[in-house]
């Protein structure tokens, strides 16, 4: 535990001057405990000039090219020396006191590496938001879903997730993480570029012996799709390619072939649906995604060795060993509670009470990117 821990809220910006203008004042007002930093991913708009004129006290890290979400954050965070990072999307509205419960949670349990607050929709403030909602899970074929959001069904927030719970992954839209754990796990995988990168990171953290949590007493509001709308074929490509890459990187050898094969078949079903609907751009994106995945296999195999896969998926908190696709589209289960997933958080902290995350007392390679 660190007394008076240092915290940096780091906003990665790319042509998002309008989001900075709208949301940065609130971040500054409601984050007195933290240093607020904007890392600019070589924007072509006037974001940097706007910051220099209107927010001269905010530290700006100007990257020389658009590295994407993953490597952009790696490059920026390598220049930030704090105990905790908060990766915050530029299109997020924070609320008064949002940092306090999150930092308290991290300070009280050193085995918790990452956590997220409640993520609600900026334009429909009574409901959860797609990217993270009340904490992330993963099904037996690697499809992500959340408490409060399964596929495109968003639940109304009625206080049903006002708890503190261990989950599989915490959203990259508002990710609290120990800086030491971030680099111990290798940071964000640059080849993911964007989308599902936080799931990959959280999986690696679990394999290292850390925990990932959700805290329902902190709330932020997310616009969503601020830089890449979900209807964009580029996003379709990234989701399908990164979904397969996620499994290949992190599954045990025992489970890899079966799970990955099933996932690729289901991706083919999704592609057939795009064809049926006449959506040829998304159909092509799925084909390109699979081709790109097979082209990355050598790289992904090497990445597996950096954080060895040591756990069966059945031991991973937040792994749903059934098909959420089947439950949702065939059985009609539209909400998280209909899945009847047991709450393992009640015993998870005790389970790790006498176990330090692997490498915590060892000298580990700090894989910060060169600047």
Descriptive labels:
nine-stranded mixed sheet, two-stranded antiparallel ribbon, 371 residues, 13 strands, 12 helices, alpha/beta, 37% helix, Spore Coat Polysaccharide Biosynthesis Protein SpsA, Chain A
Q: What is the rounded distance between the termini?
A: 30 Å
Category from helices, strands and their pairing: alpha/beta
From the alpha carbons, calculate the radius of gyration and give it in angstroms: 20 Å
Mean pLDDT: 91
For the biggest sheet, the summary is: 9 strands, mixed
Q: What would you give as the CATH superfamily of one domain?
A: Spore Coat Polysaccharide Biosynthesis Protein SpsA, Chain A
Q: How helix-rich are the residues, as a percent range?
A: 25-40%
CATH architecture label of one domain: Alpha-Beta Complex
Count of beta strands: 13
CATH level-1 class of one domain: Alpha Beta
What does this structure look like?
- Strands 1, 2, 3, 4, 5, 6, 11, 12 and 13 form a 9-stranded mixed β-sheet that branches.
- The chain has a domain of 215 residues: Spore Coat Polysaccharide Biosynthesis Protein SpsA, Chain A (Alpha-Beta Complex), CATH 3.90.550.
- The chain is α/β, with parallel strands linked by helices.
- Helix 7 crosses helix 10 and helix 8 packs antiparallel against helix 9.
- A hairpin with a 5-residue loop joins strand 7 and strand 8.
- The two termini are 30 Å apart.
- Helices cover 37% and strands 18% of the residues.
């Amino acid at each position: 535990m660190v007394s008076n821990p240092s915290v940096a809220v780091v906003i990665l910006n790319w042509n998002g001057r309008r989001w900075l203008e709208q949301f940065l004042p609130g971040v500054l007002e409601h984050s007195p405990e933290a240093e607020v930093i904007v890392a600019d991913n070589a924007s072509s708009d006037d974001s940097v000039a706007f910051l220099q004129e209107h927010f001269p006290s905010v530290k700006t890290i100007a990257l020389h090219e658009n590295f994407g979400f993953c490597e952009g954050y790696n490059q920026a965070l390598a220049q930030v020396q704090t105990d905790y990072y908060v990766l915050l999307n530029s299109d997020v509205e924070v609320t008064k006191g949002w940092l306090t419960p999150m930092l308290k949670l991290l300070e009280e349990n050193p085995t918790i590496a990452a956590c997220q607050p409640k993520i609600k929709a900026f334009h429909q403030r009574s409901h959860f938001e797609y990217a993270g909602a009340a904490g992330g899970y993963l099904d037996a074929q690697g499809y992500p879903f959340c408490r409060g959001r399964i596929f495109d069904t968003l639940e109304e927030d009625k206080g049903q997730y006002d708890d503190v719970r261990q989950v599989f992954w915490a959203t990259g839209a508002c990710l609290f993480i120990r800086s030491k754990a971030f680099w111990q796990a290798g940071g964000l995988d640059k080849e993911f570029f964007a989308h599902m990168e936080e799931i990959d990171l959280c999986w690696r953290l679990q394999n290292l012996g850390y925990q990932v949590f959700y805290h329902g007493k902190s709330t932020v509001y997310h616009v969503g799709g601020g830089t890449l709308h979900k209807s964009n074929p580029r996003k379709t490509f990234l989701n399908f390619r990164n979904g397969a890459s996620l499994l290949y990187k992190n599954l045990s050898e025992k489970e890899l072939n079966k799970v990955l094969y099933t996932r690729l078949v289901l991706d083919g079903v999704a592609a057939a649906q795009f064809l049926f609907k006449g959506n040829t751009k998304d159909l092509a994106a799925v084909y390109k995604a699979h081709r790109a995945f097979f082209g990355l296999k050598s790289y992904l195999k090497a990445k597996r060795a950096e954080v060895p896969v040591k756990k069966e998926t059945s031991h991973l908190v937040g792994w749903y060993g059934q098909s959420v696709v089947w439950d949702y589209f065939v059985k009609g289960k539209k909400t998280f509670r209909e899945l009847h997933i047991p709450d393992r958080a009640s015993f998870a902290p005790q389970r790790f009470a006498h176990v330090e995350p692997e490498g915590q007392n060892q000298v580990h390679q700090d894989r910060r990117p060169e600047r």
